[in-house]
Each structure stands twice: as structure tokens, then as C-alpha cells.
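Q: How would the C-alpha cells look for this protein?
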Amino acid sequence: MPRNRLEQAETLTFRIAPELKVALAEIAETEAKSIGELLRELVRQRVAEQRRREFEAEARRQSLEAAAAARNPESDEAQIMRELDANLAEGIDGWE
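A: Here is the predicted structure in C-alpha cell form.
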């Protein structure tokens, strides 16, 4: 069984401008990391960022869909909103 993820890793080869490689090497040295580790971190961050954007877009889509449905007074969403409003009003009255 592999000891870590890198033993199962794929190799990715790409070209980079020499000045960027030098700058990346300087950052790696400052942070006491390898260039490969810095690149893996960047890839993980970019993938996480994309997943977050996709999640937020789906959440927004669902929110807009629920809001549109709630505008129909006969919908389940509208009924739930009325119940929430009533519960909130009760809660506020109880605090006073």
C-alpha cells in the first residue's frame, strides 16, 4: 500500500518562462518547500476555488428557484414562509 499520495500521483509536465521559474524557486527557498510542493498547493487551491464557485452558483440557482416558488401563494414554499414569519413574530413577542 502506498505510504502517501505522491506514490499514487501522476506526473504533469509543462513549460514556464525562465523568470517565473526563478521567482518560484526563490519563493520555494524562502518557504523551505520544493517547487513541486508549491505547485501542488497552487493546484489544490485552484481546484478548491472552482468547486466553491460551482457550489455557490448552484446554491444561488436553488435560492432563486425557491424565491420564485414562494411568490406563488399556493406553493409549499409560500406556506413555509408564512409559518416562519408567524414563528418569528411569536418569538419577538416573547422577548418583549
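Residues 14-95 form one domain.

The chain has one domain: 14-95.

Upvote if useful.
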